[in-house]
Each structure stands twice: as structure tokens, then as C-alpha cells.
Write a structure and sequence with these properties.
Length: 369
């Protein structure tokens, strides 16, 4: 077993999650400590300013520097880990065009932390024709197996719905022995999740998010905005498929004329309707949807999902897991898979032709005695 630290800074741009697990890259032996470090206003402003940019473009080096500094800070709080899985900050994602761009530098992080760093998890999948995202699905398989083993889930297909800046869903059959085998997983990004809500709150009310979904709870969904949103061709595309953070900019533009509460309510309804629109791509209807990511703290989102999905909608804590740290844990687990040469994605998670290992391994500089 290897003690690994995973660090994830997601598309909601709120900060960096760090979590430790012990694993052989297949089984989860134990979950360890975790921490969150939020971005300062200045860091968040620089990262927001660099969204949509590619390596070499203005602001990208500064964003990468912020990413390395924040991650090095956090890693210092986990002195016992043997390897670090470092996702980096996604600034742009265009898998069938310019590629995928996670700002950061694993070489610099390895030097700063003195630990081997596994990073650049998505590029190889994209290079081989895949979406490069989502990558947490194989870990969802490991979590489902862990929860079944602990008697917290029945050995039946279940879905994990992650609500970060963007939403992504994984259908998992925990009776499969490997995540890459046919029929084990099916995954895709569902649509926008917290990113447009956060953007609305920041722009109109100078708040980072709609705490508890209280603003949305006071509003009414604008049906014509919702119907226009659902006419987007993305929903007709079969899975696997992935999204860039701001691929649905027209949704944010469409709520501009609405009151604060109606705009928030409409964005929540759009999130839930997007998940419901993706339901048809699942191999079978799961009886339970386990929700992870910050969106599960938004009660308006949870009740909209409960109303729209033909399944029990529960926070992932119902299966003994930590919904705030699942993605960071995923990159710890994936780092160990990369070290062992095991695949991190496959045809049913990113649409790539065959299983892909991906990731780069950077070692700290050795000083000469
Ligand atoms: N108490 C809360 N009430 C409402 N929303 C919340 C609450 N806590 C967190 N959130 C939402 O969840 C977001 C953070 O979610 P999370 O940490 O899962 O995102 P991420 O890791 O950036 O995303 P991604 O999955 O896209 O990589 C916040 O920006 C906010 O929008
Ligand atoms: C390109 C990119 O960073 N995508 C993120 C984003 O945030 C959620 C969703 O879109 C998912 O596809 C992915 O993150 C998670 C960790 C994943 O790869 O599974």
C-alpha cells in the first residue's frame, strides 16, 4: 500500500482540496487527513483572468505560479505521504481542438515538496482521442467497492454525481472486478453546476456562492430560459462527453434580465434539468444517486434533483464517503495507478479508444553530498 496525497483545485475556483489515502491503486485501504486552502481574492482574480487561456498566453505563468505556491503550502501539512497527485488548475478545455490546459508545474512542485509528483493527468487521454475528462470515474468504482465491502451500499449499480463548477456523473457497477472492464463504468459531464451560480453571486452580490441555496429558494424558475438552455446540442450528444467551465455562457447571459432570486433559481433548475437530460445515457437506472462536491450543500439544488430524478438522491456521506474531498482523494488514487502503470480512463469514461494510463511523474532534485 502507498500513502498518497491528492490535490484538486476545481472549476469553481474556490481553492485547493488536499486529501490523503492509502491504496495500491485498486483497493482503498484507508482514508486519511484532509485540508482545504481557499484562494485569496487576489489569487482568485488572477485565476479568473486567465480562464480560457492556453500555455504561453498572458497571465498563464502567473496562474501556474499561484497554483504551485498554494499546493506546496498545503503539501507541507502532510509530511508522511510518499507521492503527490497534483491536478493543476484547469484554465481551458477543448479536447477535440486545442487540447486541455491545467495550469501548474509538477516539476517545480516536486522540487518544493521533496516528494515525487504525478501530474498532467489529462493530456495523454486527449492525445489518444479521448475527452480527457472526467477522470474521477475509475475512483468512483473504487469507492463503490469500498462502500459495498463496508456494508454501506448494496452490490448494485449506483451513480455518483459530482457538483463542482461543472457537474459530472458516473454510473458504476461495483460487481465488476476492474474499472476498465466493459460494463464497469459510464461517465460524462452533465452540464454547468456551481460555476454560473458563483459567477452570478460574485457579480451581483459580491458573495462567493449562494450559501445553502437560500437566494435560489426565494426565486422562481424562468421557464423560457430553461427551455432554451435544454435545446443546447450538448444534451443530444451521447456519453462520454466533457465540458469546459464556461461552455454555457449563454445561460449566464440569459438570466441577466432576471431578479437575483429568479436568476439563482433558474440556474439551479438548469443544473438539475441537465442531469435529468443525461439520464438516458446511463446503462441502467440506478436506484441511488450519491451526490458529492460543494453543490450538495446547496439545499435548493438537492431538492431540485430529488424532484427531477427517478432515484433516491443522497449526499455521498450516506455511503460513508467524504463529499468535499472525493476529488482530491481521486487524484491520490490515480497518482498511485500512474506509478503502477494502471489505466486511469477508458472508452466508457472519456471515449478514448482503449484504456489509458497517462500522467507524468516528476521526482525531486537530488542534492549531491
Ligand atoms: N454551503 C454551501 N452552500 C451552497 N453552495 C456551496 C456551499 N459550499 C460549497 N458550495 C458550492 O460548491 C462549490 C465548491 O464545490 P467543489 O469544491 O466541489 O468544486 P470544485 O472542486 O471547484 O469543482 P470541480 O468538480 O468542477 O472540479 C463552491 O464554489 C460553491 O459554489
Ligand atoms: C477539464 C476539467 O478540469 N474538468 C473537470 C471539471 O470539473 C467537473 C467536471 O468538469 C470534470 O470533468 C472534471 O473534474 C473531475 C475531477 C474529473 O475529472 O472527474
Amino acid at each position: 500500500m502507498i500513502r498518497a496525497l491528492g490535490m484538486m483545485s476545481g472549476t469553481s475556483l474556490d481553492g485547493v482540496d488536499a486529501a490523503e489515502i492509502e491504496t495500491d491503486g485498486i483497493t482503498i485501504a484507508s482514508f486519511g487527513d484532509s485540508r482545504f486552502r481557499s484562494y485569496s481574492d487576489n489569487e482568485a482574480a488572477v485565476l479568473h483572468g486567465a480562464l480560457g487561456r492556453w500555455p504561453g498566453e498572458a497571465g498563464v505563468d502567473e496562474a501556474a505560479g499561484i497554483s504551485v505556491a498554494c499546493h506546496a503550502d498545503l503539501a507541507g501539512e502532510f509530511p508522511d505521504v510518499e507521492v503527490i497527485g497534483y491536478h493543476g488548475q484547469t484554465l481551458a478545455h477543448d479536447p477535440h481542438g486545442r487540447g486541455t490546459h491545467q495550469a501548474g508545474d509538477g516539476v517545480a512542485l516536486a522540487h518544493k515538496t521533496g516528494r515525487p509528483v504525478v501530474w498532467d493527468f489529462r493530456s495523454e487521454d486527449v492525445r489518444q482521442g479521448g475527452e480527457g475528462a472526467p477522470l474521477a470515474p475509475f475512483f468512483h468504482w473504487a469507492c463503490a467497492r469500498w462502500a459495498v465491502g463496508a456494508g454501506l451500499l448494496p452490490a448494485a449499480p449506483v451513480a455518483f454525481l459530482n457538483l463542482g463548477g461543472v457537474g459530472n456523473i458516473t454510473w458504476v457497477d461495483p460487481s465488476c472486478d476492474t474499472p476498465e472492464e466493459n460494463g464497469a463504468c459510464l461517465a460524462f459531464d452533465t452540464g454547468p453546476a456551481n460555476a454560473p451560480i458563483n459567477d452570478l453571486m460574485r457579480k451581483r452580490l459580491r458573495q462567493s456562492h449562494d450559501s445553502g441555496g437560500r437566494l435560489a429558494a426565494r426565486g422562481r424558475t424562468n421557464q423560457s430560459v430553461l427551455q432554451r438552455f435544454l435545446a443546447h446540442p450538448y444534451f443530444e450528444r451521447p456519453a462520454p462527453k466533457s465540458l469546459d467551465r464556461d461552455q454555457f455562457v449563454e445561460l449566464s447571459a440569459a438570466v441577466e434580465a432576471l431578479s437575483d432570486a429568479d436568476a439563482a433559481a433558474t440556474l439551479v433548475a438548469a443544473l438539475a434539468a441537465a442531469v435529468a437530460a443525461g439520464w438516458r445515457w446511463l446503462p441502467s437506472a440506478p436506484s441511488t444517486v450519491l451526490v458529492c462536491g460543494g453543490g450538495r450543500h446547496n439545499e435548493s439544488i438537492m431538492s431540485a434533483l430529488g424532484a427531477q430524478l427517478p432515484a433516491n438522491v443522497r449526499p455521498v456521506e450516506a455511503a460513508g464517503l467524504d463529499g468535499d474531498m472525493l476529488e482530491a482523494q481521486a487524484f491520490a488514487w490515480l497518482a498511485v495507478r500512474v506509478l503502477k502503470g494502471l489505466p486511469c480512463s477508458g472508452p466508457m469514461t472519456t471515449g478514448v479508444a482503449g484504456p489509458v494510463c497517462g500522467g507524468r511523474i516528476s521526482h525531486p532534485k537530488r542534492s549531491c553530498a
